[in-house]
Amino acid sequence: MTTTSTAAASQRPIRLFRNKAAKIAAIPMILTALVVFMGGTIWTIVFSFTKSRLLPRADFIGLDQYERLWSSSKWMIAIENLIIFGLCSLVFSLVIGFVLAALLDQKIRFENTFRTIMLYPFALSFIVTGLVWQWILNPDFGIQHVVRSAGWESFSFDPLNNQAIVIYGILIAGLWQGTGLIMCLMLAGLRGIDEDIWKAARVDGIPAWKTYIFIVIPMMRPVFVTTLVIIASGIVRLYDLVVAQTSGGPGIASEVPAKYVYDAMFLSQNLGQGFAGSTMMLLAVLIVLIPWAYMEFGGRQRD
After folding, report:
1. pLDDT band at residue 230, thresholds of 50, 70 and 90?
2. ABC transmembrane type-1 domain spans which residues (predicted)?
């Protein structure tokens, strides 16, 4: 036992000095992450407990900013919109992305062309996407105008000016832009499935849909977990689409947390309230990342 411990201890310095060039090259990135990200995060959390207005002030007031935050109707609408957008985006992105990937995985003709077309919207900025869909959904010359011009005079489709469904108009633009990326991630996962599995399923007479649900999808768990993290992080940061399409309107019907934070910090000049909202957004991100890290690394260590 002593001999084994001594040998392991002697190997540690050797492992420490392996790949020295790579470790030295990573130092600037590590320092930047520690100073900028960690330092900025701690600074934001600390000053969320102050009554900072135009400039940061170390005048601590406890949880008052958080009480004001959660008593604000604007913040509650922003949270409700984020939940609706998030749940719908998760479900539809995964379902549509997987179905498109499964279709492309059939080795169809012009696969590269279709893949490029589906992925192209992701290359656009969210501002451009928001403006494009603002025009498409405009009742004067968008979908409603086209359908009425075709003879259906009673057709009505104006989600961006309807407080009850405005968040779904934003959701359409988000799905159009992001589904292509999800499709490519799913397609990469499907291409990693051994062809022998499909052959064995066909020999056993298992229908294709059962093969996907009970065999293929469980084998693609890492792909699904990574995709969920990517989608969830994009949901929490939702801002550009809202600003480009509705600017939070009509009224405050399409407010989201990121826009609330921006308005509090730069329009209302209330840094303390903005910091409190930012801290809540950080908490939402941690709620997503911690289970992912546990499943990815904790499960791997147990295995």
Report:
1. confident
2. 79-292
Q: Could you give the CA distance from residue 120 to residue 118 in angstroms, rounded to a whole number? A: 6
pLDDT, one tens digit per residue, over 26-47 is: 888 888 888 888 888 899 999 9
Q: Could you tell me the pLDDT band of residue 115, with boundaries at 50, 70 and 90?
A: confident
**Taking a C-beta distance cutoff of 8 angstroms, is the pair 245, 168 a contact?**
no
Output Rg (C-alpha) for the chain, integer angstroms.
25
Domains of the chain by residue range: 48-302
| CATH hierarchy code of domain 48-302 | 1.10.3720.10
Determine contact, residues 52/275, Cβ cutoff 8 Å: yes
In 3D space, the residue among 255, 286, 246 whose CA is nearest the CA of residue 85 turns out to be 255
User: What whole-number distance in Å separates Cα of residue 75 and Cα of residue 60?
Assistant: 22
Sign of CA dihedral 42, 46, 52, 53: positive
Q: What are phi and psi of 53, to 5 degrees?
A: -110, -100
Residue 33 DSSP class: I
How many beta carbons lie within 10 A of that of residue 227, not counting itself?
21
The string over 73-92, giving b where at least 16 C-beta atoms fall within 10 Å of a residue's C-beta and e elsewhere, is ebbebbbebbeebbebbeeb
Q: From CA 143, how far away is CA 149, in angstroms rounded?
A: 10
